[in-house]
Automatic annotation (TrEMBL):
Record domain ABM: where: 4-64
Lineage: Bacteria, Pseudomonadati, Pseudomonadota, Gammaproteobacteria, Pseudomonadales
InterPro entries registered for this protein in UniProt: ABM_dom, Dimeric_a/b-barrel
Protein's name in the database: Antibiotic biosynthesis monooxygenase
SUPFAM superfamilies in the record: Dimeric alpha+beta barrel
Organism the protein comes from: Marinobacter halodurans
GO MF annotations in UniProt: monooxygenase activity
Length: 106
């Protein structure tokens, strides 16, 4: 499953400030069973808006991680809170199958 949220950087701060905290928290979160990786992207034309995507084996895996609070992760997230607004977009199941073009033909 994918957990997706939007991050808006507040005036006077930079995406790099948030990215530093995000990487530190993600490195810890990704040690949890079922974690499959994270991505952080800037919006084209608006470098103050980001989208973050965390991938998990299942919603249950992600919920289990959140059910065991980690004080270090909480402190990192708290340190970034003053300069961002975070809006949860949602939780999305992985499709039953994925079709992708064959890159070797290009």
């Amino acid at each position: 499953m994918k957990y997706i949220f939007e991050v808006r950087i507040k005036e006077g701060h930079t995406a790099e400030e948030y990215a530093d905290a995000w990487v530190r928290a993600s490195e810890l979160i990704q040690q949890a069973p079922g974690a499959r990786g994270t991505e952080l992207h800037r919006m084209i034309g608006d470098p103050m808006r980001l989208i973050a995507i965390a991938q998990w084996d299942s919603k249950a895996s992600r919920d289990a991680m959140e059910g065991q609070p980690n004080e270090e992760i909480r402190a990192i997230i708290h340190s970034a809170a003053p300069f961002v607004e975070i809006r949860r977009i949602g939780e999305f199941e992985d499709p039953e199958w994925v079709v992708m073009p064959d890159k070797s033909k290009n």
